[in-house]
Write a structure and sequence with these properties.
single chain; 344 residues; alpha/beta; Rossmann fold; 3-stranded antiparallel β-sheet; elongated
Amino acid sequence: MLRFAHIEFLWALAGIPILIFIFFRVRYWKKKALLRLGNPETVRKMMPEVSFSRPGIKFSCFVVAYAFLVIGIADPQIGTKIEEGKRNGSDLMILLDVSNSMLAGDLSPNRLENAKRALSQLIENSHNDRIGIIIFAGEAYVQLPITTDHSAAKLFLNNITTDIVPTQGTAIGAAIDMGMKSFSLVDGTSKAMILMTDGENHEDDAVGAAKSARDKGVTIHVIGLGSEAGAPVPIYQHGKPIGFHTDEAGKTVVSKLNEQMCKEIAVAGNGSYVRASNANSGLNIVMDQINNMQKKSYDSKMFKNYEDRFQFFLIAALILLLAEFFISGKKNLKLSEVNLFEVK
């Protein structure tokens, strides 16, 4: 089992593409400058000590050393001891709406990010519950099967965006049906779904799916994301907003919380409905009801002891940085005159 003690530092790896872009940009600029001096072969002969390949080698050493340094600071740890035990908990399946309407800004910073922050807190507090994640828009997908690995759940949650599902729409019924298929209905563990959506269901019979789940002993709680006034749905390009979605008449599309649909699903699923706000996600109310459900013991394997492995990455980074430092940017003229394959 591999985990990172400080996983947030891994964001620094995003700087590597920037460094590579700058390196090749500078290299392109130097190449153009040399071409202005004259014929490339003639210019090379005028600068016999200049190496055109070593800067690339030095840069490669630096980039790999940077990556190892970041990984080392994040402190990778390996689980060395597996402990089997009993846990008393429930099975929770999170159904998260990732349709484009979830980018509306009536919840700060938008509906989706608001939901993700709340779910991250829920995962941290659900120590004994098994958790799974299903994402849905026009179709539903299992993002994470039911697991006791809460670190993996948070990692998967952080990577969820509206681009992760190619088909747009809001198929709540399909998400509920997939959640039912993901549960093991024979182990006797209490089961519940937490549906986080703006309720704009256009695809299927979500209420019918919720009734079917209730008949099989699965409770569905619904958290409504958005407001009755609604907000425009932004369009992003390369991570920046460039406008808002419009309808066929050219008017800006305003996405509103369909609270009636959310309530109907909660009633059909024998669960509760809560509207999220910037101050309160509503998950604490839902979790109070889930904690009152009958818990059942289940076997669990956990990694008890973790050993740090950061030292290997830091040593490798140090070696590469030393190599980068001692590799000269100039040719060694004496060595360049040696020809091992010359026949005299």
